[in-house]
From TrEMBL:
InterPro entries: FAD-bd_FR_type (IPR017927), Fe3_Rdtase_TM_dom (IPR013130), FNR_nucleotide-bd (IPR039261), MRET (IPR050415), Riboflavin_synthase-like_b-brl (IPR017938). It holds the Pfam family Ferric_reduct. It comes from the Bacteria. Residues 236-336 form the FAD-binding FR-type domain. Keywords: 2Fe-2S, FAD, Flavoprotein, Iron, Iron-sulfur, Membrane, Metal-binding, Oxidoreductase, Transmembrane, Transmembrane helix. The chain crosses the membrane at residues 26-47, 67-85, 106-128, 148-169, 181-199, 211-231. It comes from Branchiibius cervicis. Its cofactor is FAD. This is Ferric reductase-like transmembrane domain-containing protein. Gene3D superfamilies: Nucleotide-binding domain of ferredoxin-NADP reductase (FNR) module, Translation factors. It is a multi-pass membrane protein. Residues 1-22 are annotated as: Disordered. It is found in: Membrane.
Length: 471
């Protein structure tokens, strides 16, 4: 291992084979186009339902018609948001959980904002004839319109989810608390539905509109039930996983090995992650995402986690034989995501663990592999010894960069190399960086610094694969 900017060993090449065939999935552009078609369909329903004419008819009509449109768009965005996180395999493989989670937040914020605008415009529209009776209009809408009380409860639930998902609030909440609150988002969506279907003009104007909306809601519910509940239960039953061992694996780290007769049926690859539930007492209902820290064996899987909360603290207490439920595998940090033969792995903190598994799983096809590992100290460098041993075995280069990050600038480097620019450091460690696939995993702000340096270094976006482990 080396903490400098010179390689600590030479690359030993195996028999050279051709680079893996590029993955040219149409799932990503298709799903994006489908989402836009849904939004355009919503606008078409509004127009066909007389939305334009109503908006031009009067002040009241203007506000209520625009309120209808924003409500429709907010509802469609909410359904798209739920579909994005339903963990449909082809969506997850096309975008990756990291990208889907960021899109989920963006679409969710858009939906929430549209919902608030919808409420404001509808209220103003109904109160326009009698501006002095705004409050009585609000009370009348809430109490006398079908499904409105449920919609108010659903709105409050969605507000709770959005406010606790803001970065400042998220930092103050334990993962377990945040996860529990986040489940209220599904409750909120369900409570809003009756109001839309019972009193929404655009849901009832024609059989086409009714079928369109019921189909959207039904398909979203079906995706959730199939891929968030039925498929994980089926996979868990087939794999029949149980804890084989749990042990400390460094300061603040714990490794868990699980095994079962159906491990191979899961189709997991080194670098991917699962959502894990351990049926060992309180807290078993909450799933925690942990990446594999070793390439899958025919009969076992291993992950390594940092102890940062209640969910991770109980890992060290797991007893052999504890039954395990899983969702996954997920993530695009695996050999199949490559479009180039040569590879650069960059990880910080516990984010190095899936890259260690990826290093082990990469084919011995003559490809050049470089590993850059960031840690505050050698004692706090997860699995550094294993990574160094693997690197030596396959003829890869392993750099261990120690120390705190550079102060005063958003840098991915350690302070000991503050005189280097982020781009120059990458090029010194990996001169042919633009010709490699880059796999990055670590804390969000650190990943942002790495991605910024990669862009400045001229690495094509298609060759960069990242995963933020705190999501």
């Amino acid at each position: 291992m080396s903490s400098g900017l010179m390689p600590d060993q030479q690359v030993r090449s195996a028999a050279v084979e051709g680079p893996p065939a590029p993955s040219r999935s149409l799932a990503a552009p298709f799903s994006l186009a489908l989402a836009w078609l849904v939004m355009l369909g919503v606008c078409a329903l509004w127009v066909s339902g007389g939305g334009v004419q109503e908006a031009a008819s009067s002040v009241t009509g203007f506000f209520t018609s625009l309120g209808r449109l924003t409500g429709l768009l907010a509802s469609a965005a909410l359904l798209i948001q739920l579909a994005m996180m339903s963990r449909v395999p082809w969506l997850e493989q096309a975008w990756g959980q990291d990208e889907l989670a960021r899109g989920h937040r963006l679409v969710g914020l858009t939906s929430f904002t549209g919902m608030l605008v919808h409420i404001a415009l509808i209220t103003i529209g109904y109160a326009a004839a009698q501006p002095g009776q705004l409050w009585s209009t609000v009370v009348d809408l809430t109490l006398n319109y079908p499904g409105m009380l449920l919609a108010v409860a659903g709105t409050l639930a969605l507000c709770l989810v959005v406010f606790t998902s803001l970065r400042a609030a998220r930092r103050r909440l334990r993962y377990e608390s945040w996860h529990l609150i986040h489940l209220y988002g599904y409750l909120g969506a369900g409570l809003v539905l009756p109001h839309q279907l019972w009193s929404g003009q655009d849901f009832l104007t024609s059989p086409v509109a009714t079928v369109f909306w019921w189909s959207l809601w039904g398909l979203t519910a079906l995706l959730f039930l199939a891929f968030r509940i039925a498929l994980p239960l089926w996979r868990s039953r087939r794999a029949n996983l149980r804890v084989l061992a749990a042990y400390p694996d460094g300061p603040g780290l714990v490794s868990v090995i699980v095994g079962g007769p159906g491990v191979q049926r899961l189709g997991a690859r080194g670098g991917q992650f699962f959502q894990w539930r351990f049926l060992s007492g309180p807290g078993w209902t909450r799933a925690n995402p942990f990446s594999l820290s070793a390439a899958p064996r025919p009969d076992s899987l291993r992950f390594t986690a940092a102890v940062v909360g209640d969910g991770t603290a109980r890992l060290a207490t797991l007893q052999p034989g504890t039954k395990v439920l899983i969702e996954g595998p997920y993530g695009r940090l695996h050999p199949g995501a490559r479009i180039r033969r040569d590879v650069l792995l960059i990880g910080a903190g516990v984010g190095i663990t899936p890259l260690r598994a990826l290093l082990e799983a990469l084919p011995y096809d003559g490809s050049a592999v470089t590993v850059i590992q960031r840690a505050r100290s050698e004692a706090e460098a997860p699995l550094a010894g294993e990574i160094n041993e693997l690197a030596a075995h396959r003829g890869a280069r392993h750099y261990l960069l120690l120390g705190h990050r550079v102060a005063g600038r958003d840098s991915w480097q350690s302070a000991s190399h503050a005189t280097w620019s982020d781009v120059d450091a990458l090029r010194a460690l990996c001169p042919d960086i633009t010709g490699r696939d880059i796999f990055v995993c670590g804390p969000g702000p650190w990943i942002d610094a790495v991605l910024r340096a990669l862009r400045l270094a001229g690495v094509p976006a298609a060759q960069v694969h990242s995963e933020r482990f705190e999501i």
